[in-house]
Amino acid sequence: MQYFISAIGTDSGKTLVSAIFTEALKADYWKPVQAGFPRDTETVQSLVTNGNSVFHSEGYLLNTPASPHAAAKIDSVDLAINQLQIPKTENTLIVEGAGGLMVPLNDSEFIVDMPLLWRMPVILVSNLYLGSINHTLLSVDNLKHQGIEVKGIVFNGTPNPESEDIILKYSGFKQLLRIPQLKKVNREVVRKLGDELLKNWND
Predict the structure, then answer these.
(1) How wide is the angle at C-alpha 142 spanned by C-alphas 160 and 28, nearest 5°?
(2) Angstrom distance (rounded) from CA 200 to CA 24
(3) Who contacts 192 (Cβ-Cβ below 8 Å, separation ≥6)?
(4) I want to staple 13 with a disulfide (CB 3.0 to 4.6 A). Which of 5, 20, 156, 200 is the partner?
């Protein structure tokens, strides 16, 4: 099975969530488009301890820390989804997007087109801040309009029961995990959160 990790925006916690899912499911990991540093593949690999996961090379490695469409232009790279080759594996594959769903890849393609074209269920990461209800529900509407399957939602940050409740009620999505505000992120934290994920994953 393949799952696409996306979010309501940049710096929502996709890489941490990807590490948690990769660790818990003993899955492979792949970042189709990497723009700038640090390299998310290296970060995820540093947080995963199981001996089963394989970390596949990025499809595009861009040097400029910017939206992929802008970074590709600066780096003189032609970026297109049809040029990407999904890694061949018999294992579960975690695919991490870049930014939010409507981040442009080029003049006509967006991040959301990846799970749409590849028919991958999405795991949506919603970090909680003032305004995140609107950003989350806009992402929910986008996914529903596109007819993309959603495996569930992960909340990240200081708990906000009112925000979480309305998002879950409106979306109808399953809450897969709640990540508290973390003072540090290391392998032990990722393992513990992975154990919490599995409780909901197998329900």
Answers:
(1) 80
(2) 12
(3) none
(4) 156
Class assignment of domain 22-107? alpha beta
Is 31 known to be catalytic?
yes
* Residue of 31, 144, 174, 183 marked active site: 31
User: Whole-structure pTM over 0.85, yes or no?
Assistant: yes
Separation between Cα atoms, residue 194 and residue 38, nearest integer Å: 23
What class, spelled out in words, does domain 121-203 have in CATH? alpha beta
Instruction: Reply yes or no on whether the pLDDT at 8 is more than 80.
Output: yes
Condensed to tens digits (0 to 9), the pLDDT of residues 115-135 reads 999 999 999 999 999 889 999
Cis upstream peptide for 104 (omega within 30°): no
* Domain spans of the chain, in order of start: 22-107, 121-203
